[in-house]
Amino acid sequence: MLLKIPEYLFWIFFWNTFTDAAKYPVVLWHGMGDTCCFPFSLGSITNLLKTKLNNTYVKSLEIGGNIVTDYESGFFIHPNKQVEYVCQELAKDKKLTGGYNAIGFSQGGQFLRAVAQRCPKPAMKVLISLGGQHQGVFGLPKCPSLKLHTCEYIRRLLNYAAYEEWTQQFSVQATYWHDPFQEDKYEAHSTFLADINNEVFSNGLYADNLKKLDKFVMVKFLNDTIVQPLESQWFQFYKANQDREILPLESSKVYTTILTYMHEK
């Protein structure tokens, strides 16, 4: 998701959230329809962080090693492959061996959470998710893309075939498409989100690794026009078999399997 945040708001939020903000490097992961380095989005945020943090090392993740593949990754490279690639890139970056802070933009938020859960080394200290869809989406009304027909095709595909095997492999958005009318299908066939949310089986390592974060901050954009429901950005979702009423976080399955630690720390 292309993202523009007023500089002063971003900086105030960043400084008051991160642990030892100037001490640790920063890793960024862009959203759908964006890249690591567009000068009007993450490129400007990268420069802002470097300037404000006395030239602290900032790594804006470029999936695949070039700008074209990086852009396409937001739509067509399976998140599991992306997370594996990122884990390898972070592990071999010597500037990150002492730990790092992370900011995920839109779907980059849940992708970085997967990194924290699956790859605890190097250590992620703080994770800020800006508009991340941690309980998935059931709608993409204004999907951002350089080509409008791409979004229309993705919307139709998700509405009719999100849980088909080929769709899960072909469409990034299908891997976190969460249909409240088909919870059984979602849990059985989601090849990414259901796994990192411990809805397939309970993976104790995911919860344990998430506990290692100093802070996990989830920011909800009240005027977000791209994803539905907005509450997914705060780890909430619709009650089963309808798409109007939101289930309280504490009543959700994902809370009991992976998020209970928030009250234990």
UniProtKB/TrEMBL annotation:
<dbReference type="InterPro" id="IPR002472">
    <property type="entry name" value="Palm_thioest"/>
</dbReference>
<keyword id="KW-0732">Signal</keyword>
<dbReference type="Pfam" id="PF02089">
    <property type="entry name" value="Palm_thioest"/>
</dbReference>
<dbReference type="GO" id="GO:0005764">
    <property type="term" value="C:lysosome"/>
</dbReference>
<keyword id="KW-1015">Disulfide bond</keyword>
<keyword id="KW-0325">Glycoprotein</keyword>
<dbReference type="InterPro" id="IPR029058">
    <property type="entry name" value="AB_hydrolase_fold"/>
</dbReference>
<comment type="similarity">
    <text>Belongs to the palmitoyl-protein thioesterase family.</text>
</comment>
<protein>
    <recommendedName>
        <fullName>Palmitoyl-protein thioesterase 1</fullName>
        <ecNumber>3.1.2.22</ecNumber>
    </recommendedName>
</protein>
<dbReference type="GO" id="GO:0006898">
    <property type="term" value="P:receptor-mediated endocytosis"/>
</dbReference>
<feature type="signal peptide">
    <location>
        <begin position="1"/>
        <end position="21"/>
    </location>
</feature>
<dbReference type="GO" id="GO:0008474">
    <property type="term" value="F:palmitoyl-(protein) hydrolase activity"/>
</dbReference>
<keyword id="KW-0378">Hydrolase</keyword>
